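Lab notebook page, bench 4
Experiment: in silico fold of construct C2
Operator: M.H.
Input chain length: 261 residues
Purpose: comparison with the prior construct
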Amino acid sequence: VSWWGVVTSNTLPIQILIQAIQQGTAIAVTDGSYKEEMGTAAFSFRANVTDGRAMTFVHMTPGYPQEMTPYRAEVGGLFGIASFLHRLQQTYPIEKGTITIACDCKSALEKITSSQPPAPKAPDYDLLVETYNMIQNSPIVWIPKWIRGHQDDRHDGQPLDEWAQLNIEMDALAKRHWHTLQHQRPRPFSLPSGNGIWSIWSQGQRITSWQPKTFDQIYYNPSARSYWAQKFDDFHELDFTAIQLAYKSLNLYYQLRVPKW
């Protein structure tokens, strides 16, 4: 199994899962965990919401510390589901089917199941577009289902339904995997390119979102950082917007002198 899914339990026969997909009763549930600039996710497949047999995975969210957020961890779980289904349909003859995908991150669910592809400027575009592309090129139809998160924190005494219980289970499993990795934290990595999707890389790292400042950082930042790093011990990136405002605030004499520096 690749990085996208490490099996933690497998009590669901693959043929039963395939049959459930073809009959439209199959489900998959995911949740992510984020802490101290590292993300993890857990996701599980069932023949139906009441079937206790499961095929369950965990993984570490791809991306570097400055890119990591709770949202990215959630999207990573959805990517894991799509990756498994993509490989499933390549291995077994599934001509059509349906699966309900449950997650407590409504925004991520909406983006990957939208009729329009995610915009390059969207946060975590790399994960979103790869997931979206796998869904669009699959004979398996995704039915998104939003679950209210952290329902175990409420104190009204009402019993939780099966969906809420599965969400709580995935949340606990993702947290457990985070603590397992934290003992010997792995080196961060970028999402590998795949499935015919174009990607842009800089200094060995995949660009996760194409913001207006991205080009400035890629093109101008290396030489500028090299210069200023000689003057400051801790220098990460240039704020080109602030530089532009500062430059325009100068009078003409100093504006003419700055380029000569």
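Observations: The mean pLDDT is 87. Residues 224 and 230 are 10 Å apart (CA to CA).
Next step: discuss at group meeting.
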